[in-house]
Amino acid sequence: WKYGVRNEYLQDGINPFANVQLKRFKSKTSRKPFTTKMLTELLKASKSDADMEQLIMCSYYTGMRLSEVFATKFKISGDVICFDVATEGGKTEAANRLIPIHDDLRPWLEHKYNLTKSVGLTWSRPTHDSVGKKFGRLKNVVLEKVGITDPEQKKEYVHHSFRHGFVTMLIEAGFNELEFSDLTGHSKSFLGRTEAGRTYASTAQIEKLNRMIQLIPNLRSF
After folding, report:
1. CB atoms within 10 A of CB 30
2. Three-state DSSP class for residue 17
3. Does residue 99 surpass a pLDDT of 50?
4. What is the pTM of this model?
């Protein structure tokens, strides 16, 4: 109600929800980024499943949501090859964005795709939900292997943990939320908010985003 009034969607007045109790409301489950050991084991465990290996590699280097990884396309901006994310709409208005492809990820992708001609990633599974369910099973096996057996602890590690890890690495590299919001698609990003914004960014800005991406540590060097 306060948000609606503040943004002039609603007229100020008596809040009809002020005395309403939320029943059976579950507290938010905390999410944690995958540790280096977990990432190493996830990559090892995915070698026999092309969908899982692709999901892990792309999620680690981009922080994309699972549905975004599944639907992402390739786009060239200047001299930089990028993931074109949420072109058909996403979770937020700012979800539509470009994420430069990391130098470690690019040759891995080039073994599978012609990045200048391919439309986007391909999957053997039909939906992002089916990919997500398989990842959930794989993740639980890996967590057991690294010693996490408690069901409640397992809930702290999900696909979204890649996104948490991505943000953590950018913060550790010295960037603030306003700077990396253009990569994560958080609401502070100005990309994609207007029709003019659909040009995404100037070449200079893409180059800056590319420099940020390249500071992500190589996954396969762990």
Report:
1. 8
2. coil
3. yes
4. 0.80
